[in-house]
UniProtKB/TrEMBL annotation:
GO terms for molecular function: ATP binding; ATP hydrolysis activity. The lineage of its organism: Bacteria, Pseudomonadati, Pseudomonadota, Gammaproteobacteria, Oceanospirillales. It comes from the Bacteria. This is Putative ABC transporter, ATP-binding protein. The keyword Transport applies. It comes from Reinekea blandensis MED297. Keywords: ATP-binding, Nucleotide-binding, Transport. Residues 2-219 form the ABC transporter domain.
Length: 219
């Protein structure tokens, strides 16, 4: 479970301080999926980065499974990112020199949580069986994102953070990938927080949050 309370974040810019998040609070239950919508510049990536530990809030608290993210040491963050938090990016971020099989097992191996039965289930669900021995560069965008989804879920993380995961895909492929992402997130019993510009993609998720003028509103 993820819970953040009274989070504020702003940036020093040449023309003064820019407040981006103003006292936002929210909660995502285990197994739940939440879309994060908002206009460009509204702070979607900022919020995702705070939860991923890529940036620090000015104020507020964040908890993941009762572990405080706000006071976490670098060592705790390393463990959280390896074992409990996965990231899925718009541009896949697969390792070009590793084959598909090694790419998709990488995070589970690093976490010491490789469950071959669950991996095989993901491979089948995501239609990757015939692709395991190829390199990422030989795959289409949709295929690469399916490998990235398998990699993010193979160790059943608590939380998957996705930043526009279908942003580089055509409309039909985006719909296919989104259906598979939701299906696999449910199979792993992970929670999903996904940034998107697309109301159509957000509709696949359980809940929708909107960021506007620094505030977070739910549909
Ligand atoms: N490191 C930074 N330093 C200064 N300003 C920043 C920094 N990161 C983000 N900002 C500013 O904070 C605001 C929110 O940015 P953010 O990337 O979170 O928005 P977003 O909703 O994800 O936008 P988009 O949909 O265009 O990706 C923007 O005005 C941006 O310029």
């Amino acid at each position: 479970m993820l819970r953040f309370t009274h989070l504020s974040k702003g940036y020093a810019q040449p023309d003064g301080f820019l407040p981006v998040l103003n006292d936002v609070s929210g909660e995502v239950a285990r197994g739940e999926s939440v879309a994060l919508l908002g206009e460009s510049g509204s702070g979607k990536s900022t919020l995702l980065h705070l939860v991923a530990g890529l940036d620090v809030p000015d104020h507020g608290t964040m908890l993941l499974n009762d572990i405080s993210l706000t006071d976490a040491s670098a060592q705790t963050w390393n463990r959280l990112r390896r074992e409990h938090i996965s990231l899925v990016f718009q541009d896949f971020h697969l390792i070009p020199t590793l084959n598909v099989d090694d790419n998709l097992k990488l995070q589970a191996r690093l976490a010491g949580q490789l469950d071959l039965d669950f991996c095989n289930q993901l491979i089948e669900r995501l239609g990757l069986t015939g692709l395991l021995h190829g390199l990422p560069g030989e795959l289409s965008g949709g295929q690469q994102q399916r490998v990235a989804i398998a990699r993010s879920l193979a160790h059943r993380p608590t939380l998957v953070l996705a930043d526009e995961p279908t942003g580089n895909l055509d409309e039909q492929t985006a719909q296919d990938v989104m259906t598979l992402l939701i299906d696999c997130v449910r199979a792993a019993n992970s929670s999903l927080l996904m940034v998107t510009h697309s109301p159509a993609m957000a509709a696949y998720l359980d809940r929708r949050w909107h960021l506007k003028a620094g505030e977070l509103h739910e549909d």
